[in-house]
């Protein structure tokens, strides 16, 4: 009997060994087919082999790998493909609890569920009347100031409509879905297990989770553990360690091919309708901080591209080419977001199978605080989101459809505001800046830029003011901020000589590490060359003569002016102002002129009524005014004035200055907003 048993067992060995040997051969052949680009043949070969070895783990893993690439399941709807992959992963884990690709698939699906459910707003009523209540906020195009790059523009954004997040949350208070925390917990467990068992090949979806949750310390640890310099660079940039991030990006790009480097920095991603030819010059012009060695806007762009790749794609199909990835690269992460699964308009598609409705389309809403709103839709749960616009049926049936046409908005924004920077330094210093134009020498314009910084900065501080035209600095002054203080701020004054025309004035301060602040404003440098002209109004706390200027002061002619960086004065304090008039008519060796200044409240509240004649006979006004008659031996003259606002109430005012040439009767005037508090 023992001999018989031994013979039976001995004869059984080849029977078990043969399927494993055959499976290994099939696996090698399938890998060769994949390498040659024939994924379909590899999938069919693995399927036939699994008919004979249904529990062969390497073959099951190969099939799941191909299914993740979309192979073999194309005849099924997207949600059915997802179910098939999940069943494959669960089967694998029953056979081998260390299967990295099985953990990867489970983690991917739980992460996808969590990211949708985390921002979910439960909406009832679909495209019925219950959703129509948001139609009373349908102003189609709010106009908002925006400063992309070095320009200031008036840009129209779609607002109102049925996807207004504030309105939706007020109407439908159920936010998020039950179980989403379990999804997040399971996603973490599975994705970490995939990396633990499979190494860096499976780090991509874990990085997606960390980026989506803003866990950049953990992302940095992942990048260091996997020796992924691009992940390290992204994490360092988001953690505010800009100098280290720049070095990490350099290391990562050194390992890329030339085509990969060119694609990462391609300016066409932020200028899709007018791609710049010279990428290096373009990014140099976009630099938001001119006092630092790093180009923060370029680093931000690189971080956005790397994040978009992981948030909206996979290594085989990078997310930078996905619709949401393109918008993310142009505008960054939205300040607010939501997901919905109920259509608001007739004609929006549902997921159907055999004529039966299997599910509603998915919608993702992104809102930027000072920018656009975007709505994306995935009608078939494929993961391929597109920019949303209602169907033609909706336009004929609903007045709100125009406000929800985000395709039309995107076409407009690609021209008017193709991108936006969200970069702020880790320690951001608020600045107050006022710029005033005066006539300069040789046809130039003197832009007097007054910058104020809170006085409690003890570290060494560098300051600079730049005038930028067509993206290129054409004038600059760099100094250390003097210790002279005005009130609670340090004030420094810079004069830039520029040709007439439109320029962007940048005032920047920088301290140690990456701390600092800056303000960019578009200014018109007016041509003061011919005719009677009046400069801007330089607001000040004092205007003197007969002494040398101190730190924080400026000399114009004989006047010593201590300008203020804000158009704000304490109620009860005098309001000092300095201006210059040009082109007066000189007769008998003198130019004679009259000056009147008036500080008038804007809001119409009762104020102190002065017995004044108004600005050259325009009638009595509330507020305070002063009038002087003056003369000058020159056609150009300085005008220092002091207005007693001690009896005026706090609030918004307009300061108007008018000058009349007594020889010609011609009058010029200018005005500036002022606040008393």
TrEMBL record:
Alphabetized InterPro entries for the sequence: GWxTD_dom
Origin superkingdom: Bacteria
Protein name: GWxTD domain-containing protein
This protein's UniProt keywords: Signal
NCBIfam families xrefs: GWxTD_dom (TIGR04514)
Signal peptide: 1-17
